Amino acid sequence: MAGGAYLVVAENSSLEEIKAGHKFARPSVVVGLLHRGWKRHSPVKEYCEHIEGLVERVEVLELNLYDFDEIMDVVHHIAEDADRTDSEVFLLLNSVSPVVPAAFEASASFLGLRVIVAYGDAAAEIPVPPASVLAMPKKVLEIVAALAAREEGVKLSELASMVEHREKGGRKGKTDEVRRRVATVDYYINRYLKPAGLVVVGPSPGEEGRSFRIWLTDRGKVVARRISDYLASYPEGRTGRAGYRKLGVAQARQL
Fold first, then answer.
1. In contact, 95 and 101? CB cutoff 8 Å
2. The pTM of the whole model exceeds 0.85
3. Which structural domains are found in the chain, ordered by start?
4. Which terminus of the chain, N or C, has less C-beta within 10 A?
5. Tens digits of per-residue pLDDT, 119-138?
6. Do 100 and 12 contact (CB within 8 A), yes or no?
7. pLDDT band, very low/low/confident/very high, at 167 (cuts 50, 70, 90)
8. Of 77, 54, 74, whose CA–CA distance to 63 is shortest?
């Protein structure tokens, strides 16, 4: 199997919600998480028994669904398994445990997984900003902010000018400085934004082979919607080498 989908469902009070998640994800692998020692009727167990033979693989795991770290550890192993076949992982937030949604969202943010929530017999995806952005230089987020201001693709030289405008309040730099800024923006795009799946670079319509533009991906747009929150985490005077922020102990524990 290559390019399939995993659906992870935790102990849930509603079989209807689980079915809605299944319909959305169309999984080839299903992983049901049961609460250790659970004595009540289990819709997750019922669902897994029903789906057996209809998908490529079904796994049922028992764990403490009120233990944040244990849930994250299990999801991490599931994500590693999915990576081997280049499969996407969908995490269904609906659960009888209030800890599950928090652990699922944190896992999705750190590991780049997809989060869905069921409303009755329908489900929808909840965009989760990637935690990796917090470790990127502030300059990278300035580039995202500049791209967010333009829905159409932006040429590299134009993007460099937009970033300069944000930083200098409209004052133009000298020619050598402009060249350096273009090179810097190009470096950050290829070093951070493209590998993180936040932007895509391609030829301009009608100008194939001669001009390239940069667009925000759907993942990049998720970051752009919270860009003010990200930028606020870089207080003046507290950025370290290469623009990385210095984290206090309390902040580091949250990452």
1. yes
2. no
3. 5-127 (3.40.50.10770), 132-246 (1.10.10.10)
4. C
5. 988 999 998 888 888 888 88
6. no
7. low
8. 74
